[in-house]
Input
Amino acid sequence: MSWTFEHPWFLLGLLLVPAALWMHLRARPPSLQVSDLRTALQIQPTLRVRLRWLPEALRALALVVLVVALARPQQIDQEVISGEGIDIMIAFDMSGSMNAVDMNDADIRKIQSEGKEPDNRFEAARKILKDFIRGRKTDRIGLVVFGAEAYLRFPPTLDYVRLLNAIDALVLDDGERTSDAQDRCSNNCTIQGSGTAIGDALNRAFLRLEKSKARSKMLILVTDGKQEGGKMEPLVVPKYIASLPEKDRVRVFTFLIGGGKETRTVAKDPFTRRPLTDRFGRMVYRRPDRPAPIDPELLRQIADMTGAKAYDSYDAKKFADDFKDLERSTFSVKVHTNRRELFYGWLLGGLALLGLELLLRRTWLRTFP
Output
């Protein structure tokens, strides 16, 4: 709740009130000449005499109130509409290429000089997704993870704490395999990262949204590669969404994370396959032998078909900025403003003060001459 004025320039009239009062006080008051004041000085002033200033004060106050009334004061009541509740599915790429770091050598050394290691694509995206989830209030959010395959990690929920815990528990494939089974990650990864099944991920996420009764539904696809592996072509789901009535469509916002000019990966010992470190115990990074294939055109097609937007987030900072843009454009807070007119109350108050001033001046506080 706050105040405003329809015509605030009228408030400049308040400057005239002290000027008018000063001129009135400077005017020579009526006087009566007497030969001796000794008798008059012995008379104790009555209450009427002590309050002889009251009519002038009432007139000045009435002028102030009337000037405020002319400025049209209004009371603003704002009703914040937090949103109608959106059902959201996040399709999160956990392929092996998400281990890459999108920084140059100088930036990496700067971070390491502070006793830290730079975030790879997966860690950078995970932090931003968690911040995004914490910022929601009435939106149900679910999670699909994908690599060589895709599976539902968490159905749409308002239980953000459990969802955040599930995201914290994700383990990215480091590319190493156990000696007894070539299809098992040596680091107990959540899902194999030997592929990028974008089509399967879109399908699993869409199936969770298809029967949703929410008035608005959206899918957020975060990936750093192109379709590799999987059973379903990536454009099957977007084409189906485009054929649906407007009210049943799901917008698919795509984020191509990484793929910029500066990409590094952790160097590994060719014999032990363990990460290499320097003499200070810091990770050693190098350029990859070959850049991971990307397909920005595919992601643009997916977004365009579903009436959404594609973002090319070539590094962690750009990804964070792009996600903020998504929040500004899609989750903007609506504010309904209601203005209540206060003009008449101030006008009546000013007229009442003038009336009281005239009444006192002509009756109880009447002066002579």
About this structure: The chain has two domains: 2-78+337-362, 86-332. The two ends are 51 Å apart (CA to CA).
